[in-house]
Amino acid sequence: MLLDNELDYISGAPHHSRETEKFNMFLHTWNLHDCWRTRNANKKDFTWSKDKPFIARRLDYIFCSGDLISDVADTDIVHFPSTDHRAVVTQFVEHPFPRGPSRWQFNASLLKSKDFVKHMNIFIPNFLEDPQNVDIDCRTKWELLKAGIRLECMYFSRCTFNKKGNE
After folding, report:
1. pTM of the entire structure?
2. CA atoms of 26 and 9, how far apart (whole Å)
């Protein structure tokens, strides 16, 4: 599929304008940008060709969101052996990515705490009997219960750590 009947074909018949308009409307709707065309606004080049008769078109693309287009460092159309297509290669700028919190894991040493066990023996039945949770399907209730247990564990651990730090 061609994006532009003026720039994306070297020879052969152009695609029907209605098809290219729909393709461009799709890209616009989803805020997708052609990385190569953004950097080569008026350049005629092709990614596919055949010899007899000679036909050449730009049919291969790398699309990215409008949020990422400014992070394109380089893009090019290069020879790719053993095929009638050329490769579109795009490199993006790498930004340092700050490491966030790691995956939560249950601290089994909490089970040695009588206060924690007592707290969870109250929390779990209260959660299951809460009127807000009565009409929820079992799978969703299970996921909500696990999330609640996780939050309670984190809160209990933080409070225990703060108590020990203040002693």
Report:
1. 0.56
2. 20
